[in-house]
Amino acid sequence: MKDLTNKNGVFDVHTEDVMVPEWKRGLESLKMLRPRLKQLSILGIGLSVPTDGKITAEVIVVSSFEELESIDNAIIKGKIILFNTNFTTYENTIQYRRNSAVKAARKGAVAVLVRSITPISLYTTHTGDLVYEPHVKKIPAAAITIEDADFLQRIHNRGEVIVIEIQMSNELKANISRNLIIDVKGYDIPDKMVIVSGHIDSWDVGQGAIDDGGGMMISWFVPVVLNYLKLKPRRTLRAILWTSEEVGLNGAKAYLERHSDELDNIDFIMESDEGTFKPLGLEVAGSKNVTCLINEILQLFKPWDLNRLKVANSTGSDISIFIDKGIPGASLLNKDDRYFWYHHSNADTLTAQNKSDVLDCAAFWAAISYLIAELPVDIRRS
């Protein structure tokens, strides 16, 4: 991306090294042995430990953490737990991907399966990250399709014993990655910054086209198009392509630590990480003053129906840790109702993108960030 930036005539670009966890998927298989033979689709959850060979065990199906807790530990011990939890919202349902391994291990389970975190499926498995705790045994965790989760649920409801064989290999090590930073220096108050961003990493399945190829590219596009149009804003407009968002916001955390003395100079921070479908406006987190100011700017985009404003306490993924520090920010608001159809799955390819929508997002992202950076008044945090 640095070379591509230079090829497009932008040379105020550099990278910053970040030490990140590198998790590599190996062989994965899941087979039902009882009540009949059937091969099932599986996708290991990122950062999961391997099975160290094969695990063969009975499956207990539950729909919630509460149901799991209601079962005696002696019944759970040595079993594999399947969490078959219907998708409501991502924020509510993601806990079953992130926390199920710890919850099941505390009860004595040897592995955990999770219904893929998606509202709809054409036999797709969806990965993501998980969390282990220091004093709880780490057990393997994997996602299965909605179809297979419901299939196993039906067998379980009939009172039949389900036995499966699971095998997962993977490797986890530390490695060096990089954040990419591109600046268009401000002509008046260059020490002040407006930041646009997206994350450059993705999961190993699919192509990462919507998570977060689109958001990353429209943020990269901002300094490139401003340079092409020979436009310089009042404040510095900085584009950051974060690394290692998927496994713990590591790129953003490293930037926050490395640039801690510059935080007071960030007037506004933006991120696109929930799709680049038809753009609608911005989701804004900040004081009432900031929200009113951004709303006024958005009215300039009313002829294109791009003036919608959604108020939130926090927004974005990487930028959420900056907002926690009191820096106002915004995420791209877009028609993302299909986002989780593709999210973290083999379906996340360029086919999921609409070129016209992505170009509209890029144009809006460049225009709105330039206008914010060009504001003649201070952007007051409170």
From TrEMBL:
The main place the protein resides is endoplasmic reticulum
Superkingdom is: Eukaryota
* The keyword Nucleotide-binding belongs to this UniProt entry's keyword annotation: no
An individual GO BP term: peptide catabolic process
Q: Which UniProt keywords apply?
A: Carboxypeptidase, Endoplasmic reticulum, Glycoprotein, Golgi apparatus, Hydrolase, Lysosome, Metal-binding, Metalloprotease, Protease, Secreted, Signal, Zinc, Zymogen
Q: Name one GO cellular component term.
A: extracellular space
- Molecular function GO labels: carboxypeptidase activity; metal ion binding; metallodipeptidase activity
The Peptidase M28 domain is annotated at: 179-367
Please give the SUPFAM superfamilies that the UniProt record associates with this protein.
Answer: Zn-dependent exopeptidases
Q: Does the keyword Transmembrane helix apply?
A: no
Q: Where in the cell is it found?
A: Endoplasmic reticulum; Golgi apparatus; Lysosome; Secreted
Name the Pfam families for this protein. Peptidase_M28
Query: Which family does the UniProt entry place this protein in?
Result: Belongs to the peptidase M28 family.
Q: Subunit structure, per the record?
A: Homodimer. The monomeric form is inactive while the homodimer is active.
Q: What is this protein called?
A: Carboxypeptidase Q
Q: What organism is the protein native to? A: Danaus plexippus plexippus
Q: Cite the source lineage.
A: Eukaryota, Metazoa, Ecdysozoa, Arthropoda, Hexapoda
